[in-house]
Amino acid sequence: MAGPGNGNLLLDTLEELIAELPARVRGSRERFSEGALSVLRGIVNELDLVTRDELDELELRVAQLEHRLRLLEGPPELPPAA
To answer: Whose CA is closest to 39, among 4, 63, 9, 66?
Structure first.
């Protein structure tokens, strides 16, 4: 990812990202710089992480599948009356 000429730029951008994190955690409405966002996206891609949107979509799909399965299974059968 980082060649000999990119090392310092990458480190500078990572330092900028780390410096911006406390403000973001405290709920600041300031935006990350484009360089910091680019590095963060690269890290996410490199580590093969999923995004919040992807996770939310999967949770919705699982909930829909669970609902369909319950509909197909029908109501639980009652034991015969004694």
So the answer is: 9
